[in-house]
Specification:
Layout: E1 2-3, E2 6-11, E3 17-22, H1 33-47, E4 54-59, E5 64-66, H2 71-74, H3 79-97, E6 103-107, E7 110-112, H4 114-120, E8 124-128, E9 132-134, H5 148-156, H6 158-167, E10 170-172, H7 173-179, E11 184-186, H8 191-203, H9 207-220, H10 225-240, H11 243-253
Helix pairs in contact: 1-3, 5-6, 9-10
């Protein structure tokens, strides 16, 4: 499937790995109103597709994953136009965050502001070693509004997130990895290959199991332990009595690769 500014591609046997490709290279993937709409549409379609087992988010620009909101477009916005754009922008970032399968960001080059927030909305972030990340919004009179104040704090803790947000500094891939803001650093230009490798590994496993594991982790993260364990138990039951569980156990005992029913 293709849309203006955002493309989706499928990989591997069965096409179980989907790739969302940010494709506005002339603007280094700055998120315009149209691009936000396209990203929201792409994530909605993938979230409703039961054949998808893992997703990679990548860029066609070798020097930029995404540089954030399109400030050239916003320069001419009235307050009313900015308010009207807000639901589209929120839906775009939330669409990545709410994908029911694991999502891997492949970051090469700049991932700034909303671009870094797209990456933070993913479950895993792979960076090329020349990548530069940051949340510089306070330097232009706004705050991170694509989930950054919440997602970064949950990833790295209050004080580290405070430094990144309040100073508006840019961080190298190595420094971001040391802070815990990204998960893996690979040679420049290879982040997409590594992200696809991780997604392919994930896609080999039970789709019912993986979806329920992600749901249990996400839903339980901000609760107390007892509530989290109850959520885990509910998701365990949703998996344990599935056709995938029966196939997984049979395949293990028969010493063969499983053929997942996905239900």
């Amino acid at each position: 499937m293709s849309t203006a500014l955002v493309r989706t591609e499928r990989h591997g046997e069965g096409g179980h790995v989907a790739e969302i490709v940010l494709d506005r290279p002339e603007a280094m993937n700055a998120v315009s109103t149209q691009m936000a709409h396209a990203l929201g549409r792409a994530t909605k379609e993938l979230s409703e597709d039961p054949t998808v087992r893992a997703v990679v988010v990548s860029s066609t620009h070798p020097k930029a994953f995404c540089v954030g909101a399109d400030l050239k477009e916003r320069n001419y916005f009235t307050d009313e136009e900015l308010r009207a754009q807000r639901p589209l922008a929120r839906a775009a970032y939330r669409g990545v965050l709410d994908l029911p399968v694991p999502v891997v960001a492949a970051v090469d080059g700049y991932a700034l502001g909303g671009g870094f927030e797209i990456a933070l909305s993913c479950d895993l972030v792979v960076c090329g070693d020349s990548a530069v990340v940051g949340l510089p919004e306070v330097s232009v009179g706004v705050i991170p509004g694509g989930g950054g104040t919440q997602l970064l704090t949950r990833r790295v803790g209050w004080s580290r997130a405070a430094r990144m947000v309040f100073t508006a500094e840019r961080f190298s891939a190595a420094d971001a990895h040391a802070l815990g803001a990204v998960d893996e650093v690979v040679p420049a230009g290879t982040a997409r290959d590594r992200a696809l490798e991780l997604a392919t590994t994930i896609a080999r496993h039970s789709p019912v199991g993986v979806r329920n594991a992600k749901a249990a982790m996400r839903l339980g993260f901000d609760t107390d332990l007892d509530a989290g364990l109850q959520i885990e138990d509910e998701r365990w039951a949703a998996t344990a009595f599935s056709a995938d569980r029966a196939e997984g156990v049979a395949a293990f005992n028969e010493k063969r690769p499983p053929v997942w029913p996905g239900r």
